[in-house]
Design a protein that fits this description.
Blueprint lengths: L3 H7 L14 H11 L11 E6 L2 H7 L17 E7 L18 H18 L3 E5 L4 H7 L9 E8 L14 H4 L5
Antiparallel strand pairs: 1-2, 2-4, 3-4
Helix pairs in contact: 2-4
The protein binds flavin mononucleotide.
């Protein structure tokens, strides 16, 4: 456990994993258990996670992430979380005025961020992957049957190197405005 500042500054999208170290089921479970503390609209928690951690299954998932010519690194990822959006139940007072899934994608994104930071805190690295062929993914992973739309896939494993890139971010003053 370290300060949130250090954790957030150190986390980066990892696209090169140590092929000899696969995260354990216990580690993957803990990431999801920690991420469950994420906030969501009306606490509806409209998401579920399929953890993929066998060699055979990661090999089946990787091509589903590469159909747009991206994510070649996925072929060497030791594990994935597949994050789906599930039905949200908002408070009664929103009924009729806001679609029940209105906040769901935001909730999924917040949970995904928690997942990545939980993994980072445990010494694992991640990369959120938004480019994938959902139909192909559903064909490859039978556990997705009956689940809602796949919103994100998250690669997870031990980084091949401890080195970190310099962060490239917009200048703070362009994203933060005070009204005093
Ligand atoms: C919704 C979303 C989708 C993303 N999709 C991909 C992807 O398909 N492939 C990839 O390599 N990185 C993907 N990324 C990672 C971003 O490229 C990365 O977060 C961004 O460049 C900032 O770099 P950092 O995460 O290393 O700080 C995605 C990130 C998000 C949040």
């Amino acid at each position: 456990m370290e300060s949130f500042e250090l954790l957030a500054r150190r986390r980066e999208s990892c696209r090169a994993y140590d092929p000899d170290r696969r995260p354990t089921r216990e580690q993957l479970t803990k990431c999801v258990a920690v991420a469950q503390n994420a906030p969501s609209a009306c606490n509806s928690q409209p998401w579920s996670v399929v953890a993929v951690n066998s060699e055979a299954m990661t090999a089946a998932v990787a091509p589903c992430l590469q159909t747009a010519g991206l994510n070649r690194f996925a072929s060497a990822c030791p594990a994935f979380f597949i994050v789906t959006e599930e039905p949200a139940r908002l408070m009664r007072r929103f009924e009729g005025s806001i679609d029940s899934q209105h906040y769901a994608q935001m909730d999924v994104g917040i949970a995904a961020a928690h997942l990545c930071l939980a993994a980072e805190d445990m010494g694992l690295s991640t990369c959120i992957i938004g480019s994938f062929d959902e139909e192909m993914l559903r064909g490859a992973v039978s556990a997705l049957e009956g689940r809602g739309p796949v919103r994100l896939v998250i690669a997870v494993g031990y980084a091949a190197s401890d080195a970190r890139r310099e962060k490239s971010r917009k200048p703070l003053e362009t994203v933060l405005t005070y009204v005093e």
